[in-house]
Design the sequence.
């Protein structure tokens, strides 16, 4: 098995056609087809099924795609490490994360690392939840060594990973323009009873928490639209189609005025975000420097959040 075969396989899976993969890779279409067929022969399983002019990845192919992309990430990382060494950046820490975690704290951690340790490099590897297995993808990447640390909602303690909390992502109601309750700092979840909701998929932990809170308050949430893309939900909200329910770290800071935090009888709704380390990686100087900065900024974030709640 060659990395080139995995790269061609991934390109076909993401574009849905051999022609699209060839265009993306800037190679001839027959070359893509041959490499994918060779990979199927070596693995002994079908990776795609034809649907007219397009191809559909098989269930086995979907599972192998995750592992294959992790191997490609690991290979890319080796090249980047070598390139950084050539530039004099002798240390690299690779972080598996989501775009919301970058906005929530990792952008600040990266900036502070550059200020304090200009010879060290933070490599942010963004994962998405397009197939509904975000946490499993992150953990797999961590355990095979594709990344050094990951940020995630709380994981199972049985994994035995060293970890610490970074911040709490509060769940907000981004109300339509000129909504009468738009200037409140908090909003009881009961107030969503009459709202049309624009929400993330059920695989998202914040969505599940809101659904449970609504049912505990005695009503079923009225879902108008569902998307894993916050920008899509905010665009619909801007047109007055409904209320976007999103964790605050998924809302661009300049996209809307501050939105009320949803609350239930136990207080604000939110999802804790933790940092997890690959076993043994904490001994590396570059990782230790990253952890020191992350812990410091996490402490500052927690203090600011506490003061904000007291003012409310």
Sequence:
């Amino acid at each position: 098995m060659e990395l080139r075969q995995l790269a061609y396989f991934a390109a076909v899976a993401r574009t849905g056609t051999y022609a699209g993969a060839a265009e993306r890779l800037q190679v001839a279409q027959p070359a893509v087809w041959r490499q994918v067929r060779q990979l199927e022969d070596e693995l002994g399983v079908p990776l795609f099924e034809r649907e007219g002019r397009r191809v559909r990845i098989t269930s086995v192919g979907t599972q192998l795609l995750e592992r294959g992309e992790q191997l490609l990430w690991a290979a890319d990382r080796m090249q980047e490490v070598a390139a950084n060494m050539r530039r004099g950046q002798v240390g690299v820490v690779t972080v598996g994360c989501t775009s919301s975690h970058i906005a929530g704290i990792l952008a600040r951690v990266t900036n502070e690392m550059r200020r304090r340790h200009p010879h060290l490099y933070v490599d942010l590897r963004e994962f998405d939840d397009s197939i509904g297995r975000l946490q499993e993808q992150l953990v797999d990447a961590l355990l095979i060594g594709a990344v050094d640390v990951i940020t995630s909602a709380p994981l199972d303690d049985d994994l035995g990973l060293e970890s610490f909390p970074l911040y709490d992502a509060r769940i907000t109601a981004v109300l339509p323009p000129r909504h009468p309750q738009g200037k409140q700092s908090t909003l009881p979840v009961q107030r969503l009873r009459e709202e049309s909701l624009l929400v993330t998929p059920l695989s998202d932990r914040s969505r599940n928490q809101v659904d449970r809170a609504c049912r505990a308050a005695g009503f079923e949430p009225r879902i108008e639209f569902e998307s894993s893309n916050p920008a899509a939900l905010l665009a619909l909200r801007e047109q007055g189609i409904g209320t976007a329910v999103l964790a605050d770290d998924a809302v661009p800071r300049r996209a809307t005025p501050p939105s009320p935090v949803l609350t239930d009888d136990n207080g604000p709704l939110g999802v804790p975000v933790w940092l997890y380390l690959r076993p043994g990686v904490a001994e590396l100087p570059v990782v230790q420097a990253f952890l020191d900065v992350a812990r410091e900024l996490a402490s500052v974030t927690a203090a600011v959040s506490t003061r904000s709640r007291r003012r409310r």
Remarks:
- The chain has three domains: 3-62, 67-167+272-311, 168-271.
